[in-house]
């Protein structure tokens, strides 16, 4: 349950450019357990929205750009 909420909140925050929310999600106890794939799934949302600060934060946490969302 916590993992689903964490993933959805992170994706929402990254898509909306809410850096402080994304940082808080990742700083939470369950955020420390965020798999790299979740970071990488959220990255295109930040990039597409032009939220470079959020994208940089995700990259700094280990996100990677993949060729597409289905990879």
**Radius of gyration from the CA trace?**
11 Å
Largest beta sheet, briefly?
A: none
Helix content: 55-70%
SSE run: HHHH
What gross morphology would you assign? globular
Percentage of residues in DSSP E strands: under 5%
Number of helices: 4
Mean pLDDT: 90
Number of strands: 0
Which structural class do you get from the secondary structure elements? mainly alpha
Poorly predicted runs are none
Distance between the termini: 25 Å
Write the layout of secondary structure elements.
Blueprint: H1 2-16, H2 19-27, H3 36-48, H4 52-60
Helix pairs in contact: 1-2, 1-3, 3-4
Provide an overview of this structure:
With 71 residues, the chain is mainly alpha-helical. The chain is built from four helices and no strands. It has helices at 2-16, 19-27, 36-48, 52-60. The chain is globular, with a radius of gyration of 11 Å. The chain starts with a helix and ends in an 11-residue tail after the last helix.
Brief digest:
With 71 residues, the chain is an all-alpha fold.
Q: Which features would summarize this protein structure in a list?
A:
71 residues, mainly alpha, 4 helices
């Amino acid at each position: 349950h916590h993992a689903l909420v964490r993933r959805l909140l992170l994706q929402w925050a990254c898509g909306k450019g809410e850096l402080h929310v994304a940082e808080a999600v990742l700083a939470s106890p369950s955020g420390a357990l965020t798999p790299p794939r979740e970071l990488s799934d959220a990255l295109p949302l930040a990039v597409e929205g032009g939220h470079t600060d959020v994208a940089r934060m995700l990259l700094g946490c280990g996100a990677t750009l993949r060729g597409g969302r289905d990879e």
